[in-house]
């Protein structure tokens, strides 16, 4: 169950009649416990309670009591020896009126009315194994609101199917945005009276819901009519209490979808939530899922966490502002200058979704501005930071609407926090008409028209929000002459997964480098547009989250020369990290953050996990002070042996046998033994599958054909190849006894490496096989070469190198002999080094043997890797790394830096395949 489903389940439980016997089980069920688990608890077999309650080991001890004993019972639960012995994390006491609970790990407590306990569902989420508790707990409100809005949305579409059509969908989205505004406004006194919107709907509309839409529509009409015009417009007296809001949000048609009774009830329920708790940064992303059918399954769980957004914004400009604030101390003049500077900063997110990057940037800047005001003795001063300096482009209309709404809410919340309720409300309405979030395709729009260079005005050319699609003309930048920072988290999309439209978008973005649009991820379009933008606004810096593939393998070689040659450089970067969100099915993608701008002498910052390194250059692979490009090499640059492709059968499967068929063939005719070899493909190597193939030398064909099964199979191979579209395959129909491409065959033994393997293993998979084995084309192979080659492949150093310079398939490693093996920088090995490494390779193989029949997949599971195997690898790394630097490397960053240094040195010394030191 995900957090939204849990919220729904416990909300349903709280409104049901309280059943003291059933409550503990229903509560556990709401957190995803299965019927069988509950059965065991009910029967008492797994119930460890010593107080007559329900105790689920490692989770929770629940005690339901008569009225009035809740506080005492919580104390009893705390003192219970069973609670301690069974390591219960939570204790919970209730009588159906009061509700108290404690998280024993953190000491946090909850005490509330029974009916309100769902408000604290984030507190209990560890019960469902959801560990990002802090984030979820902080956004409990947002999850609840999203879940309820979703229910309303679905219900409304049932009653008004035409509003779900592509044509009416924007109206529906607009209607939802208006509702969200009303819920927020009625709880924050923007509507002067708490609950005004919900109460008016409840009182003025019939209980059978027949006129709910009429009442809401009238309220909206009033909010779109200036007070002085209301009597002329005949607005109803009861709707007159609503202020004039407009700002585009309430202009245009007031048509409202019809409500069923259920929809009306949902609406009133949503109104009863406490909307002051809304987090505009998180809520916006969550709410997108309400109107997006594809995302609804993981409702609200795709939001980007604030710490991740700050990974972009802090190094982009916020850290600098904070440093300057620190330096300014209490100097009023310097503080004033800093405040002026802040008020002129423009933040532009050209894939802004519901505006979370912009909202966070705004809130952080307000915090800094407030500190300045405090130090200058000007607390409560009106902010100089204009919302219109936060610009965005978003493709979809609903997120674009929400983005603007989120910024408006953020402004109100900041005013409330730093200036007070009266001032916040006083300046809030009517909403400004300006529209500074553009709904459109960022790769087709000229960014200069949305966020023009300093000194110009901004013409918004694309679709508008909150209004019919008219051109809203020019919006002046308030506080002229500032800095511009671009940021965002654009869609990644590898080139294979791009739609035709997206391919065309990319071609348009990369007009100056057409080749790049064919091979690179969609996200690179934003880098391309940034390059054009920076030509007009050279002081702009852009930082985007991207898949790490743009800094790996072939893409890195293609993209970065284009960027560096446009006089740009990497100002800062975060090396690969997991961009996780809360969607239960989504493990997150591995991303990097790169901040790009025109070249300068500034210090560059390279962030890795919690560490930051200062350097003078950051290279295409995000390595400090190394701007080498690693290009394919047809032969090893060091002493390592030649690595070939595996062998390609292209046989329709007819040259292959499973174990049983192979055994029975040999039982029938022992001469067949000579023609059967064990086949090693990637699956066979990693998962230990047994598969066999016919391997017949040209000279032995006649002999093989005497065996009826082989003759039959070769006929099938021939037919299969004859039917191929590829001329090269058809040619091999004449030689059905052999594989189409034979890259090698071992006389003694072969080292085999899969082409694709999971990045989760701490070492690359590699195996050693005897000469009766054939390496398939899903592998690479090193034939009859010294065993120390295996030690290199199995080392952490090689893992790090391949992970960086080779491309990836999704996040998996895609091994390459020309890009990963031949380029692997290996210091000259002495005979002693070779002997030591050979011993290490043998030890690794022996350690694996000791766990026979475990497969590589079993043995290299990072959670369960056997100790002796881990130690063998550690020794291997120790020996190899000492050859490089006389000690172990401290971390992967140090490994990579050394490898790049050595690579540069080795290829320059060879004078070929010279890394281009482009700057
Ligand atoms: C990964 S989301 C990031 C949004 C937001 N920053 C967040 O973290 O939730 C990417 C956003 O880009 C929008 N998008 C996709 N293609 C676009 C395009 N060509 N132009 C503008 N926006 C686009 C998507 O609709 C989506 O809202």
Q: Can you describe what's shown?
A:
- The radius of gyration is 33 Å and the shape is globular.
- Helix 14 runs antiparallel to helix 19, helix 16 packs antiparallel against helix 17 and helix 34 runs antiparallel to helix 36.
- The strands form six sheets. Strands 8-7-6-11-12-14-13-15-16 form a nine-stranded mixed beta sheet, with helices on both faces.
- The chain has 919 residues and is α/β, with parallel strands linked by helices.
- The longest helix has 23 residues.
- 43% of the residues lie in helices and 13% in strands.
- A hairpin with a 5-residue loop joins strand 4 and strand 5.
- It contains 37 helices and 27 strands.
- The site of S-adenosylmethionine has 20 residues, from helix 18 and strand 7.
Shape: globular
Low-pLDDT sequence parts = 459-473, 913-919
Question: What share of residues is helical?
Answer: 40-55%
Strand order of the largest sheet: 8-7-6-11-12-14-13-15-16
Unique ligands: S-adenosylmethionine
What separation lies between the terminal Cα atoms?
A: 51 Å
Total strands: the figure is 27
| Proportion of beta-strand residues | 5-15%
Query: Count of helices?
Result: 37
**Structural class of the helices, strands and pairings?**
alpha/beta
Average pLDDT over all residues:
89
Radius of gyration: 33 Å
* Biggest sheet layout: 9 strands, mixed
């Amino acid at each position: 169950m995900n957090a939204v489903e849990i919220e729904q389940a416990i909300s349903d439980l709280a409104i049901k009649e309280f059943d003291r016997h059933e409550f503990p089980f229903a509560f556990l069920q709401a957190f995803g416990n299965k019927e069988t688990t509950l059965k065991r608890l009910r029967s008492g077999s797994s119930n460890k309670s010593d107080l007559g309650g329900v105790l689920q080991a490692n989770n929770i001890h629940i005690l339901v009591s008569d009225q009035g004993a809740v506080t005492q019972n919580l104390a009893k639960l705390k003192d219970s020896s069973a609670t301690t012995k069974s390591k219960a994390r939570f204790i919970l006491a209730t009588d159906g009126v009061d509700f108290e609970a404690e998280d024993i790990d953190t000491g946090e407590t909850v005490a509330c009315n029974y009916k309100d306990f769902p408000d604290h569902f984030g507190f209990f989420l560890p019960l469902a194994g959801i560990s990002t508790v802090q984030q979820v707990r902080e956004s409990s409100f947002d999850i609840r609101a999203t879940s309820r809005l979703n229910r309303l949305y679905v219900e409304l579409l049932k009653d008004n199917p035409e509003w779900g059509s592509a044509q009416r969908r924007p109206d529906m989205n607009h209607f939802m945005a208006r509702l969200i505004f009303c819920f927020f406004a009625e709880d924050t006194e923007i509507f002067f009276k708490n609950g005004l919107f919900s109460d008016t709907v409840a009182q003025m509309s019939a209980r059978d819901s027949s006129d709910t839409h009429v009442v809401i529509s009238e309220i909206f009409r009033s909010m779109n009519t200036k007070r002085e015009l209301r009597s002329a417009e005949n607005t109803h007296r009861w709707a007159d209490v609503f202020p004039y809001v407009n700002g585009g949000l309430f202009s245009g048609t007031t048509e409202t979808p019809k409500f069923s009774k259920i929809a009306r009830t949902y609406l009133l329920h949503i109104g009863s939530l406490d909307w002051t708790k809304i987090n505009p940064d998180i809520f916006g992303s969550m709410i997108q899922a309400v109107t997006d059918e594809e995302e609804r399954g993981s409702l609200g769980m795709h939001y980007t966490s604030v710490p991740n957004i700050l990974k972009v914004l802090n190094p982009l400009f916020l850290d600098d502002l904070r440093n300057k604030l620190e330096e300014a101390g209490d100097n009023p003049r310097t503080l004033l200058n800093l405040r002026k500077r802040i008020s002129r900063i423009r933040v532009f997110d050209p894939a802004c979704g519901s505006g979370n990057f912009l909202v966070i940037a705004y809130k952080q800047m307000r915090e800094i501005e407030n500190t300045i005001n405090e130090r200058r003795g000007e607390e409560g001063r009106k902010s100089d930071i204009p919302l219109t300096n936060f610009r965005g482009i978003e493709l979809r209309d609903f997120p674009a609407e929400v983005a603007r709404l989120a910024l408006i809410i953020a402004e109100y919340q900041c005013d409330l926090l730093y200036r007070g309720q009266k001032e916040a409300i006083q300046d809030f309405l009517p909403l400004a008409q300006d529209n500074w979030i553009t709904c459109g395709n960022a790769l087709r729009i000229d960014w200069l028209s949305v966020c023009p260079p300093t000194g110009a005005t901004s013409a918004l050319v694309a679709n508008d929000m909150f209004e019919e699609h008219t051109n809203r003309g020019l919006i002046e930048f308030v506080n002229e002459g500032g800095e511009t920072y671009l940021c965002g988290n654009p869609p990644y999309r590898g080139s294979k997964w791009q739609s035709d439209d997206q391919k065309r978008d990319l071609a348009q973005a990369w007009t100056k480098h057409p080749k790049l649009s064919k091979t690179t991820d969609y996200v690179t379009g934003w880098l391309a547009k940034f390059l054009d933008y920076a030509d007009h606004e050279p002081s702009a810096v852009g930082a985007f989250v991207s898949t790490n593939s743009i800094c790996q393998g072939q893409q890195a070689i293609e993209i970065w020369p284009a960027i560096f040659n446009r006089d740009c450089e990497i100002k800062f970067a975060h090396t690969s990290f997991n961009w996780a969100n809360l969607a239960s099915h989504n493990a997150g993608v591995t991303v990097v953050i790169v901040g790009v701008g025109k070249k300068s002498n500034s210090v560059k910052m390279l962030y890795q996990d919690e560490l930051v390194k200062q350097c003078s250059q950051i290279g295409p692979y995000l390595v400090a002070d190394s701007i080498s490009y690693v290009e394919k090499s047809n032969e090893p640059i060091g002493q390592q042996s030649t690595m070939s492709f595996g062998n390609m059968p292209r046989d329709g499967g007819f040259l292959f046998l499973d174990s049983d068929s192979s055994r029975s063939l040999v039982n029938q005719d022992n001469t067949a033994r000579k023609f059967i070899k064990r086949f090693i493909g990637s699956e066979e190597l990693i998962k230990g599958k047994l598969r066999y193939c016919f391997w017949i030398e040209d000279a032995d064909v006649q002999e093989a054909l005497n065996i009826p099964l082989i003759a039959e199979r070769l006929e099938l191979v021939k037919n299969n190849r004859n039917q191929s579209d590829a001329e090269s395959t058809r040619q091999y129909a004449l030689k059905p006894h052999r594989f189409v491409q034979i890259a090698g065959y071992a006389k003694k033994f072969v080292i085999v490496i899969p082409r694709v393997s999971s990045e989760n293993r701490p070492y690359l998979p590699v195996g050693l096989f005897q000469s009766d084995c054939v390496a398939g084309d899903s592998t690479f192979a090193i034939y009859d070469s010294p065993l120390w080659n295996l030690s290199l492949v199995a080392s952490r150093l090689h893992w790090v190198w391949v992970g960086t310079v080779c491309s990836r398939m999704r996040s998996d490693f895609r091994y390459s002999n020309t890009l990963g093996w031949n380029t692997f920088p290996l210091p000259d090995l002495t005979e002693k080094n070779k002997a030591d490494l050979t011993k290490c390779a043998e030890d690794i193989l022996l350690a694996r043997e000791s766990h026979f029949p475990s497969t590589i997949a079993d043995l290299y599971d990072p959670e369960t890797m056997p100790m002796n195997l881990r130690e063998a690898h550690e020794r291997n790394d120790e020996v190899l790394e000492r050859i490089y630097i006389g000690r172990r490397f401290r971390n992967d960053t140090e490994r990579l830096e050394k490898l790049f240094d050595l690579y540069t040195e080795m290829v320059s010394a060879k004078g070929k395949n010279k890394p281009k030191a482009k700057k």
